[in-house]
Design a protein that fits this description.
Length: about 450
């Protein structure tokens, strides 16, 4: 029986193989005729209508054309619909009363013992609070949020204060995003320079630390504040910044820190957006502008800081940066200041690197380094200092940066080395080079000063 069954299936397979072979034995003309017949059939069906367009209905629409400038009605409709949408989103956020109620519930459900001075809550109590807090709070009472805030508590609890601060931070971020979106005229998730200027201008009256600013200074203050956002968040100089990037960086925190009426003097001085800082930067600009024409010539800018920037570097500044009849305006000056005051930051290094890369090659060679360092050597001669050999400085720079290519230094090499600020100071500023060259002496003097202070202490 087994042999008969095997024979039966083998015969069937042989017949099928024979049939398929016969089909394949058709000549090329027969195959071409069949192909033409099928093509004509399907093309005729398509041209007649058939199911044409039915497949398109399955593809979701992913592009919506923005109204043109002359389509006033469509623009108004878009603005109104966005305003209604943002109002609805705003109503979904917790208000002050609801936040107070949440804190009351968390405090009521705390689980002893306390961890140091912090009240704690268990996962079971956390879920109970979530049920009582209302629908707006539902998004915060998840296992993921609890796990994110769970650290080293031996009872598996989380800090009530840490959780409440997390909720506050989320609410603040959503509020701020909605506030910024109101100024997003295009509705595309980014702000142009004029949009951000309007936002900050209307924010000024809500910041107590800016109460002392005269209204005549508002335009200069707004320009000073906006430049920091665009200098660091718009490296390609597109003229717009994503709202998401604004929220992700710390600049908005610094700006809104000015709501604190008791902000310390030290915090104000270190905050770019504070009144003393803005007045300092603008005051420096006015002091440099000796001919009082509202612009800075190269000679006027040469007195910036310690007046030790090299002429070669300043030449490059005026070659590469936007100027008007060879003079620099306040906005361009702000970019210059932000770059030199933040030399550790990638955006500042990008600004300086572009000036050092004279041939726009994307890297610095030994020739580039020598070109800029010769100006440092000339300044040393003028000040009667012993001239340092370029060969020694060049070797030190390459040792510090450790570039991938031993003969070229790229911007990425400078960023990766974390020595970009030192290298740029060595090449463009005599004072910066002197500080680097005498770093060991300066450290010793600092240690001696600290020792003397310790001895003076009772």
């Amino acid at each position: 029986m087994a042999n008969a069954k095997t024979t039966h299936w083998s015969d069937i397979l042989k017949r099928r193989l024979a049939n398929s072979t016969r089909k394949d034995e058709r000549n090329e003309d027969e195959k071409k005729a069949e192909e033409t017949e099928l093509f004509t059939k399907y093309y005729s069906e398509w041209k007649a209508g058939g199911n044409r367009g039915s497949s398109y209905k399955k593809i979701p629409r992913f592009y919506y054309r923005l109204p043109a400038e002359d389509e006033v009605l469509l623009q108004k409709l878009r603005e109104e619909s966005r305003a209604v949408f943002l109002q609805r989103k705003s109503r979904e956020l917790l208000d002050n009363e609801e936040l107070q109620n949440l804190w009351f519930l968390l405090d009521k459900h705390q689980v002893p013992p306390m961890s140091g001075e912090e009240a704690m809550i268990s996962y079971e109590a956390y879920l109970k609070v979530g049920e009582k807090a209302g629908p707006k709070c539902k998004q915060f009472f998840t296992a993921r949020v609890y796990g994110k805030l769970l650290h080293s508590d031996p009872y598996g609890r989380i800090s009530i204060m840490q959780f409440f601060n997390y909720v506050m931070r989320k609410v603040w971020l959503h509020q701020t995003r909605i506030g910024l979106s109101l100024y997003d005229v295009a509705g595309q998730g980014y702000l142009r320079e004029s949009d951000l200027e309007n936002y900050i201008l209307e924010l000024i009256p809500t910041l107590p630390q800016l109460d002392g600013l005269e209204k005549s200074f508002y335009s200069f203050y707004v320009c000073t504040a906006v430049r920091k956002f665009f200098f660091f968040l718009d490296p390609l100089r597109t003229g717009k910044i994503k709202i998401q990037d604004i929220l992700a960086c710390s600049f908005l925190d610094d700006l809104l820190e000015l709501r604190d009426e008791e902000l310390s003097k030290e915090s104000q001085e270190s905050n770019w957006f504070s009144a003393p800082s803005a007045l300092r930067v603008y005051g420096q600009y006015l002091n440099l502008d000796k001919d009082h024409n509202g612009m800075l010539s190269k000679e006027e800018l040469s007195r910036y800081g310690t007046a030790t920037l090299t002429a070669v570097f300043l030449d490059r500044v005026y070659q590469e940066c936007l100027t008007y009849d060879g003079e620099m305006d306040y906005k361009t000056y702000l970019d210059f200041v932000l770059a030199l005051e933040n030399r550790k930051e990638p955006a500042a290094l990008q600004y300086i690197f572009k000036l050092l890369d004279m041939e726009n090659q994307g890297y610095l060679t030994v020739f580039s380094l020598n070109y800029f360092f010769r100006a440092i050597q000339e300044q040393m001669k003028i000040h009667g200092q012993e001239v340092i050999s370029f060969q020694d400085v060049k070797d030190e720079i390459f040792d510090m940066v450790k570039p991938k290519d031993p003969y070229k230094i790229t911007l990425q090499d400078l960023v990766n080395s974390c020595q970009g600020d030192t290298v740029s100071s060595i090449l463009i500023d005599l004072n910066g080079f002197w500080t680097y060259e005498n770093r060991e002496v300066l450290v010793t003097n600092d240690n001696d000063s600290n020792s003397a202070l310790d001895l003076d202490d009772p």
